[in-house]
Amino acid sequence: MRLLFLTTYYPPFLKVFYDQHPGFLDFTYKEMMDKLLDQYFADTGALHHYCIKHKFDSNLIIANCEPLQKRWAKENQVIYSEADWEKEIVLAQIKQLKPDVFYIESIFNYYGQFLKEVKSYCKFIVAWISTPISDSLKLNDIDMILSSTQDFVEKFRKMGIKSEYMLPAFDTRILDLLEVSVEKSIPFSFVGGWGHVHINRKKALTHLVQSTNIQLWGYGYRKEYHKRSLNYYKNILFPEKSDVLEAYKGEVWGLEMYKVLQQSLITFNIHESLLKGRVGNMRMFEATGVGTLIMNDNGINLADIFIPGKEIEVYDSLDEAVEKTNYYLNHPEKAIEIGLNAQRRTVKDYNYDEFVKQLSNHLNKL
Known about the structure:
By secondary structure, the chain is α/β, with parallel strands linked by helices. The chain has two domains: 2-169 and 351-363, Rossmann fold (3-Layer(aba) Sandwich), CATH 3.40.50; 174-349, Rossmann fold (3-Layer(aba) Sandwich). 43% of the residues lie in helices and 15% in strands. The protein is built from 16 helices and twelve strands. α3 crosses α16, α4 (66-75) crosses α5 (85-97) and α13 crosses α15 (332-349). The longest helix has 18 residues, at 332-349. The protein is globular and about 60 Å long. The model has no long low-confidence stretch (mean pLDDT 94).
């Protein structure tokens, strides 16, 4: 079966990546793709790798990586307009590859009319959606939707769309790239973005920076100003200050993110209200995969994923999160024990080999 995955990468990650790899523009398309996948950023690259391992004919498109996409176009003599290069090149790739399954992530500017056109060049369209969507978003050309949010699965099924529940997975190759044993030099951490959709997260982190010594990594914490604007120079002379920014340590991506998680004795996690009391985001498996105790908001399905008190620690309020965090900071050996229990569970049950087996079973239903 030929699979074609379509994803985009966070622009902040791409900016850092370009700065760190000044020779990137001189690479061939394959060299560019290999270098990007070597960063272990996001999950689609891992899924692509394990699909190949399990004998799928798998291909990956990173739609918004401009040098990569334009290199492919040049090597394949594809003409595109500068005004709409992104979608035009992606469509050319789909036409050339003609996949059995076109797998699209939650990049909604590619839904609707674009998917209608894609339908002519593939047998099936499968989407991954675990984030809120507009009621006006057109889903009628999608044959199956996968989601880590059970309520979404039920909603899509009521709409007459095949839908299946799947938890995220951990890429066990990461463990071969990290040190086997590291000092837990970061007592309490959070790794993740700060944006308008993170309502519960922003409230929680604002509370935690005032009541704990949590350290924050991620994107969106500092306001970005255009260099020609007055605010840009005002921010240089009078930098914005807050408790959150005092705790903020900077951006980390890919393997560097996993290193921060591995070095953390405890790392914090919280889900948004849209999940209606359910849990199961990517952070749960990234952190447990590297053997770190995760302080996780309780959920009605949490005990189905990890055993509370043995493989994960849970809280029902922010005050309880602070209380339990302080307990484990004073009893680090117990935090380490739970982290290692969680790692064994994640490596055994939530790895990409298992994920691809589930995916294969779902695709065979199409």
